Amino acid sequence: MGDNFITKPSCAAFSAIALLLSCLPLGIPNAAHALDGRGTDGMLRILYWQAPSTLNPYLSGGVKDIEAASLVLEPLARLSPDGDMIPWLAREIPTLENGGVAPDLRSIRWQLKPGLTWSDGSAVTSADIAFTHRYCTAPGAGCAQADKFRDVARVETPDKLTAVLHFDEPKPFPYGPFVGPQTPLLQAAQFADCLGPRAPGCTDANFAPIGTGPFKVVEFRSGDAAVFEANAAYRVPKQPAFGQVLLKGGGDAMSAGRAVLETGEFDYAWNLQLGPEVLAAMVARGKGQIVSSFSTLVERIAFNFSVPDDATQPHPALSDIAVRRALAMALDRRTMIEIGYGAAGRVSCNIVPAPPAYASSANDGCAAQDLDGARDLLSQAGWVDTDGDGVREREGTELRFVFQTSANTVRQNFQALAKEWWRQIGVAAELRAIDASVFFSGDPSSPDTLEKFGADIEMYAGASDGPDPEAYLAGWACDAAPGTENGWQGRNVGNWCDPEYDALLGALSSTAGLAERAALSRTLNDMLVQQHVAVPLVDRGRVSAHSNSLGGIRINAWDSELWNIADWYRLPG
Amino acid sequence: MRSHALRRLAMTIPTLLVISAIIFALLEFAPGDPMAQLPSTIPPDVRAEMRAALGLGQPAPVRYGMWLWQMVVVEPGIALGIVADGDTPRILSWQTRGPVMTLIAQRLPQTMIVVGSAYIIGVIAAIGLGILSARRQGSAIDRAGTGLAAMGYALPPFFTAAVLIYVFAIQLEWAPTIYDTTLHVTGWNSFAAQMRQMALPITVLSLQTTAQITRYMRAAMLDTLGQEYILAARAKGLRERTILMVHALRNSMIPVLPVIALGAPQIFAGAIITESIFGVNGVGQLLITSLSAGDLPVVQTVTVLIAVAIVLANLASDLALPWLDPRLRDA
Question: Is the ipTM of this complex over 0.85?
Answer without folding.
Answer: no
